[in-house]
Amino acid sequence: MPRILVIESEAKIADHYGKLIQDHGYEVEIAQSNSMALKLMSEGCIDAVMTNYSVAGKRLLDMVVSDYREIPCIIVSSKDSIRDSVDAIKRGAFDFLTRNDSNKDIIGSLHNAVENRNYAGPKRRRSDKMNPNKFGELVGESAAMQAVFRTIEKVANTDSTVLITGESGTGKELVARAIHNNSDRRDKPLVVINCGAIPGELLESELFGHEKGAFTGAHRTRIGRFEMADGGTIFLDEIGDMSPDLQVKLLRVLQEQSFERVGSTKPMKVNVRIIAATNQNLQKSIEEGTFREDLYYRLNVIPIHVPPLRERKSDIPLLKDWFLKRLGGRRRQDRKRMKVFSDKALEVLMRYDWPGNIREFENMIERLTVLVEGDVIEVEDLPERIRGSNIGEKAITPSPLQNGMGFNEAVEQFQKDLILQALKQTNWVKAKAADLLKMNRTTLVEKIKKMQLEPFERVRTEEGFPNPLP
Ligand SMILES: Nc1ncnc2c1ncn2[C@@H]1O[C@H](COP(=O)(O)OP(=O)(O)OP(=O)(O)O)[C@@H](O)[C@H]1O
Ligand SMILES: [Mg+2]
Q: Which residues contact 258 (CB under 8 A, 6 or more apart)?
């Protein structure tokens, strides 16, 4: 669940926004002062920040921009001023709202902020402390990824439009960031917008801005993402989902670098590099009539295809270490310990096809760093569907029948293994193991006694049966 930090010294206002945000499914942290806010941010796990535009608010915005560039900062000002709004956006705010804006606007903005978590505002520093790599968080040593890196290097410093294609979760957004960060636009904003996540009618004003009174609910003039990206890069994610109307307008921006705010006839000029991405087959969309062919050719000046993980499995060992290091240290209490995979477990990872690509891989590692108690991740710790791809492999899932067991004996052995694994995962804390097994603690204690289970039996589970525990 995304976690929002609200910085507000007035308890009543803090309470109001806290409740509003919570009601919309976010977790909320309230800080009454900047120092409290900085402490919470330094502990990690903050997905967006919301503050006012007082002197302290401005100071906080500057600190977020310089030290926590990955956290978007939304300003909710007590004053409706276009000057403040432009100033805040230039300083690196993700969005500027006022207390008169509707709850819907505020939640909408928060939603966008969380979606665009790594938004880099105009003044954001080039070198991100966490990622000293040239390509940011993008790692890979396979030939396929090396080719992607070479293309990024070659095209970064041109203004050519780039179209990134690839299955979901392959790293398209990271490629876009790497291009921006290796270009001489790097000190200007990289503005990310997910064309699929925003309803068509809102997307136009999100991209191009709107004038006050342009439509119901347009209480004031707002600048769009293209204006925010001036001098920098705009990343149009999920471009394949854009409506035909907007496709026409985007085509015009590509041809003339000019557009109008919704409700205005005054053309605006911007200097923006466009990177688009999609996981759809645009050629098929063109045939089906949902994507404009002329727009496709305008976008596809430099195509970059990010290959799926199953086609570059040689990256798995490196990715595993990368994520273990990064995710293992996310919670403060875990920072000292970094888990390792057993050889057999790694073999299973290499055999699986990863339909969800790196996102699936990353999520699995995050889950394991939280759930596995010991320091070594074993085959039986892996999720069922990943181990499932190895069914029939004797070394990993021995069949009880092959071991010459009858039904009763096999069931008993299975129960024993299940209990042993729960005990192992919880370091033999019986109350925790009982919770994991969704079993009464006394029942568990009885079973342990009856089965004469002792800690040294832990080894047996390593050759035991696949286990349905999470
Ligand atoms: N080569 C890589 N090295 C390290 N992390 C990666 C790599 N590729 C992707 N990731 C991580 O995997 C996750 C998915 O990446 P990203 O969002 O860039 O994928 P995507 O192709 O844009 O997916 P979608 O089409 O679903 O939007 C992110 O958390 C990203 O950090
Ligand atoms: Mg993406």
A: 252, 267, 268, 269, 270
**pLDDT tens string 409-458:** 778 877 887 888 888 777 788 888 898 898 998 899 888 888 877 764 33
Domain boundary among 287, 307, 327: 307
When the pLDDT of each residue in the chain is averaged and rounded to a whole number, the result is 84
**Domain range spanning residue 266?**
143-307
Whether the per-residue pLDDT at 345 is higher than 90: the answer is yes
Clarify whether residues 251 and 154 are in a common domain.
yes
CATH number of the domain where residue 379 is located? 1.10.8.60
Residue 123 has pLDDT above 50, yes or no: no
Rounded CA separation 325/130 (Å): 12
- Based on the fold, state whether residues 156 and 270 are members of the same structural domain: yes
Do 257 and 344 share a structural domain? no
Average pLDDT of 99-123? 75
> How many structural domains does the chain have?
4
CATH classification of the domain holding 416 = 1.10.10
Give the span between the Cα atoms of 26 and 4, in whole angstroms: 7
User: What is the atom index within ligand 1 of the atom nearest the CA of 306?
Assistant: 21
137 CB within 6 A, ligand 1:
yes
Give residue 405's pLDDT. Answer: 63
Does residue 9 sit within a domain? Answer: yes
The pLDDT tens digits of the residues spanning 357-403 come to 999 999 999 899 888 888 899 999 999 989 875 544 433 444 555 45
C-beta of residue 176 within 8 angstroms of C-beta of residue 277: yes
Exposed/middle/buried for 109, CB within 10 Å: 0-12, 13-18, 19+? buried
Total length of the chain: 470
- Please tell me if the CB atom of residue 166 comes closer than 6 angstroms to any atom of ligand 1: yes
| 12, 98: one domain | yes
Pocket test residue of 174, 241, 280, 367 for ligand 1, highest count of atoms within 8 A of CB: 174
Ligand nearest to the CA of 306: 1
Same domain, 277 and 233: yes
Question: Hey, whose CA ends up nearest to atom 15 of ligand 1?
Answer: 171
Number of H helices, E strands in the chain: 20, 16
Sequence-ordered alpha helix ranges (H) in 289-406: 293-299, 316-328, 343-351, 357-371, 384-388
CA-to-CA separations, 425 to 231, 404, 455, in angstroms, rounded: 52, 28, 12
Q: Which of 195, 359, 364 to mutate to test the pocket of ligand 1 (most atoms within 8 A of CB)?
A: 359
Q: Does 399 map to a domain?
A: no
Strand partners, 128: 131
